[in-house]
Specification:
This protein is α+β, with helices and mostly antiparallel strands. It has two domains: 5-112, MutM-like, N-terminal (N-terminal domain of MutM-like DNA repair proteins), CATH 3.20.190; 123-246, Helicase, Ruva Protein, domain 3 (Orthogonal Bundle), CATH 1.10.8. Helices cover 25% and strands 22% of the residues. It is built from seven helices and ten strands. The protein has helices at 4-8, 28-35, 109-112, 123-131, 137-142, 152-162, 175-194, and strands at residues 13-18, 40-46, 49-54, 58-62, 68-71, 79-85, 88-93, 100-104, 235-239, 242-246. Strands 1-6-7-5 form a four-stranded antiparallel sheet. It is elongated, with a radius of gyration of 20 Å. The mean pLDDT is 95. It binds a DNA duplex (14 and 14 nucleotides) through helix 5 and helix 6.
Length: 253
DNA sequence: TCAAATGTTTGATC
DNA sequence: GGATCAAACATTTG
């Protein structure tokens, strides 16, 4: 977002073309026709969705797990969309094709009706939401209908910082622990943004630069390595189908 | 060589 | 309605 918005806002889309049925569910030609000649009036974020407001309607992009929007990069084997702009070319690359590109006159319900943003929810509201849920906290943090914006890495890191076990029941968290988790989410997301994200294998921003937050991970990807706080080996389990990393000593159930 | 892992969402099923 | 799990896909790693 930080590198994308300044570069894209105010630009005109001259022409667009697509090559992935997975990423683009619409008819390619129909979507291209919707975009041609339109100017980007603004770029906003709705949880993990990127929304470019056009003269008419919105171009909605989700990067999935491996998607990337890149300015003036050479097209490669995983280029799924090409946007010719009046100031260069914007590519959408996505090896696994879990990402999505679509156009809509208004935000579709599944984008508009996500939970509150993890970066903006108040401590009191967060506590209220947690109280209503009979679910383990880690998978719940990943549920975008509950809270928008948290991904797998940052959920593990926030739970570690807050000292909360990933299997803890949301509704049973004490007010103090919920407050610590709220603080940790905002801290972790803020630090990750400041460090331009976590480049595990191939994540890059719109200018093609890798992030550096991966060097600051305390638990994610550190299975078997000593906890930076207590020295106990970091454990990896699967919760809700996602790899989950935590310190069994610092994060008690 | 092959099984398992990877940053996400959805749709089915209970 | 809510919780849980498999599936969509390509590539890397052990």
């Amino acid at each position: 977002m930080r590198s994308l918005a300044p570069r894209l806002t105010g630009r005109r889309i001259l022409h667009a073309r697509f090559s992935s049925r997975h990423v683009v569910r619409d008819n390619f030609k129909r979507l291209a026709a919707k975009l041609a000649g339109q100017t980007v009036r603004g770029v906003t974020r709705h949880g993990k969705f990127i929304v470019a407001q056009l003269d008419k309607g919105n171009l909605i992009v989700h990067l999935g797990m491996t998607g990337a929007l890149l300015f003036d990069a050479p097209a490669g084997p995983h280029t799924r969309a090409v946007f010719d702009l009046d100031n260069g070319v914007l590519l959408y690359d996505d090896p696994r094709q879990f990402g999505r590109i679509e156009w809509a006159p208004e935000l579709p319900a599944r984008v508009a009706r996500l939970g509150p943003d993890a970066l903006h929810i108040s401590e009191a509201d967060f506590l209220t939401l947690l109280r209503r849920r009979h679910a383990r906290i880690k998978p719940l943090l990943l549920n975008q209908s509950f809270l928008r914006g948290m991904g797998n890495i940052y959920s593990d890191e926030a739970l570690f910082q807050a000292g909360v076990h990933p299997r803890a029941m949301a509704s049973r968290l004490s007010k103090q622990r919920a407050a610590r988790l709220h603080r940790a989410m905002i801290d972790i997301l803020g630090a990750a943004i400041a460090n331009k994200g976590s480049s595990i294998s191939d994540y890059v921003d719109a200018e093609g630069r890798r992030g550096t937050f991966q060097h600051m991970h305390q638990v994610y990807g550190r299975e078997g390595q000593p906890c930076t706080r207590c020295g106990a080996p970091i454990r990896r389990v699967v919760l809700g189908g996602r790899g989950t990393h935590y310190c069994p000593k610092c994060q008690r159930l």
